[in-house]
Amino acid sequence: MCGRYSSSRSPETLAVEFGARDATGERAPDPDYNVAPTKPVFAVVQRHPKDAEGNRDLTGSERTLRVMRWGLVPKWAKDPAVGNRMINARSETVSVKPAFRGAIRHYRCLLPADGWYEWKGDSSPKQPYFAGSADEHSLGMAGIWATWRDPADPQGQPLVSCAVLTTEAVGELAGIHERMPLVLPRHHWDRWLDPDNENVDELLNPPGHDLVNGLALRPVSRAVNNVANNGPELTEAAPDAENTLFRS
Fold first, then answer.
1. What is the pLDDT of residue 243?
2. Considering 17, 118, 172, 233, which one is annotated as catalytic?
3. Is 109 labeled as catalytic in the residue annotation?
4. Is 198 a catalytic residue?
């Protein structure tokens, strides 16, 4: 699964990396090495522009970097608190689940990340690991998003939220947890974000071993367990942490 991740790069850097226009404005979150559900996060989307009357221009599309809240709130939800439980969506069932099937066809996004945290369950307390990019580039986690308006205030400010897609863990990652975020290779980003592509079934498979083997995987400090803790030290290898990855 994906319940915490790191996102430390500036919106300017992310806009260049993902070939997007920075539309975050003053809402851009600060560098966050312990991103938790309900926090504001960066998301990359690609949409057809609209004119003053709200009509879409189908002749072109624009990719933008935006800010969303982590935890999907479907447009039909009566209470936004439902998003607290919908931080992930399983890639195997996202196309059929009522809460997600519309979003996977029309509202897909990429969630930039330095990497994510996972906990191995054979120790007490559990040992956290960080799986991250081994170079200076961001990972693109597959996501879906939705726009929700309060039924009691339909003219109020809408809530834009998102969820991370998860898939079966691959390679060494499977030794930590059976699930992992669906990390898309760069050559899949265009197809994933294409607003005219309604069928992305072929992109919902677990990432290849080449991508996973290129990740940096290490045990980190249990300080990440507390969402109040933040800073680059959370992603660094903890010298006193026992690496239990290969323990039988």
1. 58
2. 118
3. no
4. no
